[in-house]
Design a protein that fits this description.
The complex is a heterodimer. The two termini of chain A are about 60 Å apart. The radius of gyration of chain A is 31 Å and the shape is elongated. Chain A contains 16 helices and three strands. Chain A has a three-stranded antiparallel sheet. Helices cover about 65% and strands about 5% of the residues of chain A. Chain B is globular and about 55 Å long. The longest helix of chain B has 14 residues, at about 150-165. By secondary structure, chain B is an alpha/beta fold. Chain B has eleven helices and ten strands. The chains are: A mainly alpha, B alpha/beta. The interface of A and B includes residues 310, 311, 318, 326 and 424 of A.
Chain lengths: ~425, ~280
C-alpha cells in the first residue's frame, strides 16, 4: 500500500505543478493585455491632453472705421488694413497711441491677419464702404488664443514670452467686455493649412487623404484581388508560382520609403506625373498595399471549403463561374478585412509621401487628384516641425482627426463585412 | 467490344421494378435496361501513383449501380472519372475509354462543363451553395440557359424540388438559406439541384455517410424513385445500403474491379473469395 500512497503523492505534486503552471500562464496573459492597454491609454491620453484645446478657439468682433483719410483708393492692396484695425481696437480700449504707432502695432498683433484680408475683400466688392464702419468677427491671433488658454503666462519673464504686459491687459479687458468670445473651433475643420496657426485647419489634408486613398483603393483592390484569385484558383502550381509567392511575401516586408523612391523614379521622373498630388501618392500607396491585399485575399480564398468548389464544378459551372459566383463571395468578408487593414495602414503612411514631394505647404483645397494636396499624416509631420507653439495643439488635433478617420474607415469595414456575412 | 448505340431510351424496365415495393431488396440478374455508361480499360493516376487498373464495366440505364470496397480502393476515383471531376485535381491523369450513350467523355470536343451538366453529382458532405434554397436549385438552369423566363425557372425549381421529395418541406421558405436545412434535407436539396439541369446520369459519392438513419432511409427511398428515370451510380461504404438500393454492384479492391454483377448474386453468391471476404467483414 505504501507504493500506491507514494505514487499518489508524486502525482499530487505533479498535478499541483501543472495547475500552478496554468495559473501562471493566465496571469502572463493578463499582464500582457494590461501592458498593451496601458500603452494605448497613455498614447491616446497624451494626444487628447495635448490636442483637445485645438478644438476650442477665441474670436474677436471688431468694428473698424474705414477712414477715407487713411485709405489709398488707388492702391487698395497696398493699404495696411490690419494696422487700421489695430488703431480702432486701441480706441475701443481707450488707449492713446504713441507717436510711432507702436501701440497700434501691438494691438494689431492680437487679431488674425484674416481681418485685413476680409476688409480688403469687402472694399473691393463694395468701394462705397470706405467712410463707414464695418463690423467683422475673426479669430484672435494664435498667441492671444494661447494666452486665453493659459499657455502663455504672466509669470514667464517678459523677454521669454510672445505677448507684452499691456497686450495681456488688453486681452483681459476685451474678454471682460465680451468683445472676445471663446467658441468651438469650427475653422479647424473648414480651413486648410496656413502659415498662421489660428487660420490653419485640416480640411485640405482630410480631402487630400480621402482622394489619395480613393486612388489607392481603386487601383490596389481590383489588381490585388484579381491577382490573388489567379494565383490561388487558376495558376498552375509549380516553381514559378512558388517563386511569385515568396516574392509577394518579400514585397510585403519592404520598407515603405522604398516604395516612395520607386514612385519618385517611376511616376514622377519617368512618367511625368505631378509631384505632391493625390494621384501620385495614391499610386505609390497602391503599390505598397498590393502585397498585403494579395496575401489576405489568398488566405480568404484558401479558407473557402473545397466542397463549394466541387459543388459548382459538379453542376457544370466553369472555373471562372465557380470562382466569381461562389468562392469569391464566400471569401468576401476576409478580403474586405485585408483590404481595409492595408488601406488603413496606407492612410497613416508618411515616409513614401515625403519622397514624392508631399511635404509641400499647400494652402487651400486640392482641386483634382492631380493638383497639389496635403494629407493628414504629412500635415501632422509639418505642424509638429512648425516653430509656432500654437501649431503643437493643432498637431495633436490633426492626430485625433486622423484616428477618427481610421475609426470611421474600420467601422465601415466592419459594417460591410457583417452585410456580406449575412448573405448566409 | 463495340460501343453500344442508342441505349436506354427505348429499353423497357424489368417487370419486377414496377411491381416490387420500394426498400425491399429484390435483385434482378444482369443489366436491367440498356447500357448507359460503357467503360473500357480505364486507368487513373495521381502523379506517379496508379489509382485504377484497367477498369472495364458497363453501367445500365434506369438502375442503381453500387460501387463498394474498402477505403482507398479507387471507387470514388472511378466515379469522378465519369464526369471528369478528377481533372480538377492537380496531377490527376486518366487513360482508357468512358462512353456515355456511345460518346466518349474524354473526346477533344467534349467540354467538361457541358459533360458535368449531363452527369450530375452528389457528394459525401451535403454542400448546398451558401445561397437561398431557390437559388441553389435555380443556379444550374441559369448558367446553362435552360429557363426562358422567370416563370419557367420557378417551374423548374418546383419540379426539381418535388422530384427530390423536398417541396412539401420548403415550399414556404424558398428564400431562406440552403444551409438552414437539416443534413438530410440539404442532401435532398443537392439532389434537386442536380436534377434541375436534366442530367442523364447521377453520380453519388457516399451520399448518406454524413446522415442519420432516418435521413438515410429518406434518401434511399428517393434514390429508388429516381432510378425509374435516371442512371444512378452510388459509391457506398455500407454494404447494407448497397444491398438495399442497388440493382447491380461492383466490388473494387486496390484499384482493381474485382467483381461486378447483379446485387443479389454479389451478396449471396460471389465468384471471388476477396468479395466474399469483404462482404462478410473479414477485411475492409
Amino acid at each position: 500500500m505504501t507504493d500506491i500512497a507514494q505514487d499518489t503523492r508524486a502525482q499530487d505534486a505533479r498535478l499541483k505543478k501543472r495547475h500552478a503552471a496554468e495559473a501562471r500562464f493566465r496571469w502572463y496573459g493578463r499582464v500582457a493585455i494590461a501592458i498593451a492597454l496601458g500603452f494605448l491609454v497613455l498614447l491616446l491620453g497624451r494626444v487628447v491632453q495635448q490636442g483637445y484645446t485645438a478644438f476650442w478657439t477665441h474670436s474677436i468682433t471688431a468694428s473698424v472705421y474705414l477712414d477715407p483719410a487713411r485709405i489709398d483708393r488707388t492702391d487698395l492692396e497696398g493699404n495696411n488694413f490690419d494696422y487700421i484695425a489695430g488703431g480702432d481696437l486701441l480706441k475701443r480700449l481707450k488707449v492713446q497711441d504713441d507717436a510711432l504707432g507702436l501701440a497700434s502695432g501691438e494691438a494689431m498683433d492680437l487679431v488674425s491677419r484674416d481681418l485685413g484680408f476680409q476688409l480688403l475683400d469687402r472694399i473691393k466688392a463694395d468701394p462705397s464702404l470706405i467712410g463707414k464702419t464695418v463690423t467683422l468677427t475673426v479669430p484672435v491671433k494664435a498667441n492671444a488664443d494661447l494666452y486665453y488658454k493659459g499657455e502663455i503666462k504672466r509669470s514667464t519673464p517678459a523677454a521669454d514670452r510672445k505677448l507684452t504686459d499691456r497686450q495681456m491687459a488688453w486681452l483681459d479687458r476685451l474678454k471682460a467686455d465680451g468683445v472676445v468670445k471663446g467658441h468651438f473651433n469650427s475653422g479647424f475643420f473648414t480651413r486648410s493649412d496656413s502659415t498662421e496657426p489660428e487660420q490653419a485647419g485640416v480640411l485640405g489634408a482630410v480631402v487630400g487623404s480621402a482622394l489619395m486613398l480613393l486612388v489607392a483603393a481603386l487601383i490596389a483592390v481590383p489588381v490585388g484581388v484579381l491577382a490573388a484569385v489567379w494565383l490561388e484558383e487558376f495558376s498552375p502550381k509549380g516553381r514559378l508560382s512558388g517563386f511569385i509567392e515568396v516574392n509577394i511575401n518579400n514585397l510585403a516586408a519592404v520598407p515603405s520609403i522604398v516604395y516612395g523612391l520607386l514612385g519618385l523614379v517611376l511616376f514622377i521622373n519617368w512618367l511625368g506625373f505631378p509631384r505632391s498630388a493625390p494621384l501620385t501618392g495614391g499610386l505609390v500607396l497602391a503599390l505598397m498595399s498590393l502585397p498585403t491585399i494579395i496575401i489576405a485575399t489568398r488566405a480568404a480564398l484558401k479558407a473557402v471549403p473545397p466542397s463549394i468548389r466541387e459543388a459548382a464544378l459538379g453542376m457544370g459551372a466553369s472555373r471562372t463561374q465557380t470562382v466569381f459566383h461562389h468562392v469569391l463571395p464566400q471569401a468576401m468578408p476576409g478580403v474586405m478585412t485585408g483590404v481595409i487593414l492595408s488601406l488603413a495602414h496606407a492612410l497613416g503612411e508618411t515616409a513614401p509621401l515625403l519622397m514624392i514631394g508631399m511635404v509641400a505647404f499647400t494652402p487651400g483645397l486640392p482641386e483634382s487628384i492631380s493638383s497639389a494636396a496635403s494629407v493628414l499624416p504629412v500635415q501632422v509631420f509639418l505642424w509638429e516641425n512648425a516653430a509656432e507653439a500654437a501649431f503643437h495643439e493643432r498637431t495633436a488635433g490633426a492626430i485625433m482627426v486622423l484616428l477618427l478617420f481610421m475609426i470611421v474607415m474600420n467601422s465601415a469595414a466592419v459594417i460591410l463585412r457583417r452585410r456580406f456575412e449575412k448573405r448566409w | 467490344m463495340t460501343a453500344p448505340q442508342n441505349i436506354g431510351e427505348n429499353s423497357s424496365m424489368p417487370h419486377d421494378t414496377q411491381l416490387r415495393p420500394p426498400m425491399v431488396a429484390v435483385h434482378t440478374p444482369g443489366p436491367a435496361a440498356g447500357v448507359k455508361i460503357h467503360c473500357e480499360k480505364v486507368n487513373a493516376f495521381y502523379g506517379d501513383k496508379q489509382a485504377l487498373h484497367d477498369i472495364t464495366i458497363d453501367i445500365p440505364d434506369r438502375a442503381v449501380t453500387a460501387f463498394i470496397g474498402p477505403s482507398g480502393c479507387g471507387k470514388s476515383t472511378f466515379l469522378r472519372c465519369i464526369n471528369r471531376m478528377n481533372e480538377t485535381i492537380p496531377g490527376a491523369r486518366v487513360t482508357g475509354r468512358i462512353e456515355i450513350d456511345g460518346s466518349d467523355v474524354n473526346a477533344r470536343d467534349v467540354d467538361p462543363v457541358v459533360l458535368r451538366s449531363r452527369v450530375g453529382m452528389v457528394f459525401q458532405k451535403p454542400n448546398p451553395f451558401p445561397k437561398s434554397i431557390f437559388e441553389n436549385v435555380a443556379y444550374g438552369p441559369r448558367i446553362h440557359g435552360l429557363a426562358s423566363s422567370k416563370v419557367d425557372l420557378e417551374g423548374i425549381v418546383e419540379a426539381s424540388l418535388k422530384k427530390a421529395g423536398l417541396w412539401a418541406e420548403v415550399a414556404d421558405r424558398l428564400h431562406q438559406s440552403g444551409s438552414s436545412l437539416s443534413g438530410g434535407q440539404q442532401q435532398r436539396l443537392v439532389i434537386a439541384r442536380a436534377i434541375a439541369v436534366q442530367p442523364r446520369v447521377i453520380l453519388m459519392d457516399e451520399p448518406c455517410s454524413a446522415l442519420d438513419p432516418i435521413a438515410t432511409a429518406r434518401i434511399e427511398e428517393l434514390i429508388d424513385e429516381l432510378r425509374r428515370q435516371y442512371c444512378i451510380v452510388i459509391v457506398t461504404h455500407s454494404m447494407a445500403q448497397a444491398a438495399r438500393v442497388s440493382q447491380r454492384t461492383a466490388f473494387f479492391h486496390m484499384g482493381i474491379l474485382v467483381e461486378e454483377g447483379a446485387t443479389g448474386e454479389i451478396f449471396t453468391n460471389p465468384r471471388e473469395t476477396r468479395t466474399q471476404d469483404y462482404i462478410t467483414g473479414r477485411f475492409g
